[in-house]
Amino acid sequence: MNAAREHGDRSSFGVLWIGTLDYGTGPLQASDRNIPAQRLATFPNSVTAISYGGENMRTALQSRIDAGNPGFQLKMYWSRPSSNGNGHRDGLQYSQGIISLRVECTD
């Protein structure tokens, strides 16, 4: 996925994490952002184009399949999600249409 837009200065955010978790079913609520995720990968906050297919992702996906779970949920988040206090918007904006998860099965 590639960021559609970059906003401001992200240096205070730390690194960008991708993790897996179980939000459950139904629409997301604001409180869901506090559900901890199992870290799969980290990226420097300067990275805007993200592509990841590491062993951690494969293992997490296979664990969900083996457990009979119907879904696989991912969370992207900053390691230090705090403001730099300058009153301007900071962060990355991704469009849903450019985010994809490709799974290849082999025997």
Can you give a write-up of this model?
This protein has 107 residues and is α+β, with helices and mostly antiparallel strands. The protein has a domain at 13-79. Helix content is 11%, strand content 22%. It contains one helix and five strands, in the order βββαββ. The strands form two sheets. It has a three-stranded antiparallel beta sheet, covered by helices on one side. A two-stranded antiparallel ribbon has the order 1-5. It is globular, with a radius of gyration of 15 Å. The mean pLDDT is 83.
What tags apply to this protein structure?
1 helix; globular; alpha+beta; 107 residues; 3-stranded antiparallel sheet; two-stranded antiparallel ribbon
* Helical content (DSSP H or I, runs of 4+): 10-25%
Strand content: 15-25%
N-to-C series of helices and strands: EEEHEE
Distance between the termini: 28 Å
Uncertain parts? none
Question: Major sheet: order of its strands?
Answer: 3-2-4
> How many strands?
5
Please give the largest β-sheet: 3 strands, antiparallel
Mean pLDDT: 83
What structural class do the secondary elements suggest? alpha+beta
SS field, number of helical segments:
1
Radius of gyration: 15 Å
What is the 3D form?
globular
